[in-house]
Amino acid sequence: MVDRPAAAAADGRAGSPYVPPGATNGSRRTPDGRPRRCPGSTLTTLAEDLASRGYVVAAVDHAYEERRDVLVLTEGVLMYLDPAGLRSFLVSCRTAFPAAELVADHFHPRIALSGLHPIVKATGTWFRSGARGGRGLAAAAPGWKKVSDHRVMERISLGHRAAGGLFRLLALGAPAYSVARLRAAPPAG
Fold first, then answer.
1. 36-56 residue pLDDT tens
2. CATH topology of domain 68-184
3. Number of neighbouring beta carbons within 10 Å of residue 165
């Protein structure tokens, strides 16, 4: 949607305590899209399914496209889902988008569930799940495989690098915090 229709579609939602004004009415245009693979109706089905379970869903309308590749980005989201919610989210994404890729940040369970992260202290909202690296995140639901795992924490500073290295040593190689790229595995058969 272009900015004006997006603003009209967001009318009544902007300004609520959960959605800041202006957050829902932006748009970007991406020229020269890649080959299309997912029907647009699937996006609506997934959005409705996730919204009915209490997830925040961002609406993006590309009615002129029949099929397209899908990249799901989940920054700062998955750790707030309990293990069953995480599994449900991953299964829903793979069911709706069999050729999707997912990029998600995640904490090791010992950090995620400890309550020691500064954002937990600042907001009082606890993380409910974690993963032992990208493989652990992929193993949370069937049909996903790890493509890569980027140890973000260790790139921040020398102190973070030392802490991340020590944590990996104590956690038998699993990173404290990283960003995983997963790909939906082709269906068996």
1. 455 555 555 666 666 556 555
2. Rossmann fold (3.40.50)
3. 14
